[in-house]
Amino acid sequence: xxxxxxxxxxxxxxxxxxxxxxxxxxxxxxxxxxxxxxxxxxxxxxxxxxxxxxxxxxxxxxxxxxxxxxxxxxxxxxxxxxxxxxxxxxxxxxxxxxxxxxxxxxxxxxxxxxxxxxxxxxxxxxxxxxxxxxxxxx
Length: 138
Description:
By secondary structure, this protein is an alpha+beta fold. It has helices at 16-19, 23-35, 95-116, 123-126, and strands at residues 7-8, 40-41, 57-62, 66-73, 86-94. 31% of the residues lie in helices and 20% in strands. The strands form two sheets. Strands 3-4-5 form a three-stranded antiparallel beta sheet. It is extended.
């Protein structure tokens, strides 16, 4: 299956020896890269073995080398939870992948909000007070 987002083509990693250049060469190379349009590639994705899970809770932690994102289900999404939040998925990635994911999420959310309106993340602002019900007489 093809990736619905066209992602810019990634460059191959550069070794330390290859990365050593004069600062003038770096500036010239950077100027050329900024002038060239990003090439788009279509990635082939095999999602036949994917396991989909729902999460309404996310915790981000990490180390200097890796980002750790835990996903889980908060049984009490309003107020302070009284039951433990069960973490059922953990994603560990490097910061380069995290930055690419952040960019893809930002673009996706911008498109969604442009179509459907701003997403309010403060649940207190989203929850409307229930109108008072008339009491039965008798």
